[in-house]
Amino acid sequence: MPLEKLEHYTIRSLDMEATRDFYRDICGLKVGPRPPLDFAGYWLYCGKIPVVHLVPLDNPIAIRGEVNVPSVSNGAQPGTGAVDHVAFGATNVEGMKKHLEARKMPYKERIQAGGFLHQIFLNDPNGVTVELNYHTAKLKKLTARGASMGTAIKRGTKKKATVRKANGRRPSSKNRRAA
To answer: Which of the residues 45, 84, 110, 167 could staple to 32 if both were Cys, CB 3.0 to 4.6 A apart?
Structure first.
């Protein structure tokens, strides 16, 4: 009975249309069908999977439980509550950077330690941080041989043993095999 995959996450939003536009126009998700529920909302698809569900914050029947969404218009700092961020795998990092810059969408960029992931971070209109992960050639090479991402990262970060002479220096290239 192990879990298999993350199906979706739901955002309770004060501005449904701005949030829909962000995920559609900035992230490239597609607005798609949703069941005839008793409240407004959008389902945004990544391929055939509705990965982002949007529901109105002010509708108490939309989602059970209570959510404290900071209102930036009232001077509160944006935030995501207990959820820190959500991440998507993506392709064409340079194309996405050009896309974001053309739309004047601020983002932060990082190459993960070990050089396995090129990452872009941006915030949706509700303050939810969205992480876009681009697998680098280094990771693709390791996973192409059938390794899981975790195994590939372990293999790729192992430090190679270095042969040293008694004086602490590495042997010359012609003497390394003999050492």
So the answer is: 45
